[in-house]
Amino acid sequence: MRIEQHPILTFPAGKMVKFTFDGKELYGKEGEPIVAALHANGIKVIGHSHNKHRPRGLYCAIGNCSSCLATVNGEPNVRTCITPLCEGMVVTMQNGKGVIK
Amino acid sequence: MKRTDIAIIGGGPAGLCASIAAAKMGAKVTLIERNSTLGGQLVKQTHMFFGSQKQYASTRGIDICKILDNEVNKYDNIEVLTNTTVLGMYEDGVITLDCNGSYKKMLPSRIIVATGASEKYLPFANNDLPGIYGAGAVQTLMNVYGVKPADSVVMVGAGNIGLIVSYQLMQAGVSVNAIIDAAPSIGGYLVHASKVARLGVPILTSTTVKSAHGKEYITGITTVKLDDKWQEIEGSESYLPCDNLCISVGLSPLAELLWQIGCEMKYVPTLGGFVPTRDNHLKTSIDSVYVAGDVAGIEEASSAMVEGSIAGLCASRSIGLTMTDYDKVLADYIEQSNSLRRGPVGDKIRQGLAQVEIGGQTK
């Protein structure tokens, strides 16, 4: 969910672009981190760990912790917290280590 | 190979001030930032700063960021490299960079490492569930991108960051169910604690997280009380619902590059973990490497800014540059940094620094 009203901050409307997460069509602001767009759409589970298949999501939001890795446009292990959203991005939940094609 | 006088690694408050100070001395500065924008964690600090007027007290962090950013832009001798990560620092003084996806080498005369810190974590059952976020992550989502991290939050940690972020969550329309802290008393400033307490948020001291609940996503936590020896009190468990657990239990220096180049490091818990030894000009055990900000020991942004200025001045001086009133300006910054650490709040910091300072109070 996006913040509608804030006592200090205003957030520019931005250009909304279409992208997909696991095939589902979603909209997010162009240039915001992929994970922010997913959160705005209520999606917080982004992958599953490779050994025990435990759910994974955001943790540090500054590209440090590798908790929010997903597959983006076929490329695995993309840090969704620091990768800007672009029109037409294909994001898929990453289960396990991912495959480099 | 690209050459520069001073490479500054990290474009947060320390790195920005280091760049400005070095540029004033006439140094050719290369400021390297891994993100697309400068400012480091200032970009999400919507609260007004304390400290002294010289470090922009009563100005919001987001505005300090703009002031410093504008200042950096005024200097032709500062080159800013964004989307650039330093990959390595080598014995011959070369640093290697991933610059927007391309691999580059650079040979600076001096390096100021101002890489900041990352959030600490806490061990408890199910601590890897999605919905358990660092306090900084929560701030990024809501204050930078305008996205609510969750609907109802439990904050772990009643230090300044925990208290301030709790208040900011409420400003964003998120409810804060409780703030818990394992310590027997509130660690942050009373003014921040009263602000959230007035809004009805319970602050539970001597309390920690025993486990998180939820299958794919957090739905609540079990808390447990601690006795005066920090041991769990059996039967004191209690359930708190939440769809986000915000972890604010301190920071640890991002010192990988310092380890790599072989700076002497010491473990000082009050400074956040392993930190480099340095003289009062912020020069490390390696002559060409200076440090500033959280990587040199966890403090507040105001101290990071002053340290940046000191490191910028001294690194430039060490390659033969100077400016009018150099000694006076440097003495003033050193006095400012001492002044920020005075009083009972600075006790632990001063004790910590005493353990890592080389040569004590010189000059």
What attributes does this structure have?
heterodimer; A: 101 residues; mainly beta; Ubiquitin-like (UB roll); five-stranded mixed β-sheet; three-stranded mixed β-sheet; 1 helix; B: 363 residues; alpha/beta; seven-stranded mixed β-sheet; 9 helices; 29% helix; globular
Number of domains of chain A: 1
Estimate the strand proportion of chain A.
25-35%
What's the helix count of chain B? 9
The overall pLDDT average of chain A reads 94
Shape of chain B: globular
If helices are DSSP runs of H or I spanning 4 or more residues, what is the number of helices of chain A?
Answer: 1
Order of helices and strands of chain A: EEHEEEEEE
Shape of chain A: globular
Rg of chain B (CA only): 21 Å
Oligomeric state of the chains in view? heterodimer
Low-confidence segments of chain A, given as residue ranges, are none
Please identify the structural class of chain A as seen in this structure.
mainly beta
Give a short synopsis of this structure.
Chain A is built from one helix and eight strands; from the N terminus they run ββαββββββ. Chain A is mainly beta.
Q: What would you note in describing this structure?
A:
- The complex is a heterodimer of chains A (101) and B (363).
- Chain A is mainly β.
- Chain A has one domain (16-94): 2Fe-2S iron-sulphur cluster binding domain, sarcosine oxidase, alpha subunit, N-terminal domain (Ubiquitin-like (UB roll)).
- Chain A is 7% helix and 30% strand.
- Chain A is built from 1 helix and 8 strands; from the N terminus they run E-E-H-E-E-E-E-E-E.
- In chain A, the strands form 2 sheets. In chain A, strands 2-1-7-5-6 form a 5-stranded mixed β-sheet, covered by helices on one side.
- In chain A, strand 3 and strand 4 form a beta hairpin.
- The termini of chain A are far apart.
- Chain B is α/β, with parallel strands linked by helices and 363 residues long.
- In chain B, strands 1, 2, 3, 4, 5, 6 and 19 form a 7-stranded mixed β-sheet that branches. A 5-stranded parallel β-sheet of chain B has the order 8-15-9-10-11. A 3-stranded antiparallel β-sheet of chain B has the order 12-13-14, with no helix packed on it.
- In chain B, strand 10 (175-180), helix 5 and strand 11 form a beta-alpha-beta unit.
- The two termini of chain B are 36 Å apart.
- At the A-B interface, helix 1 and strand 4 of A face strand 8 and helix 3 of B.
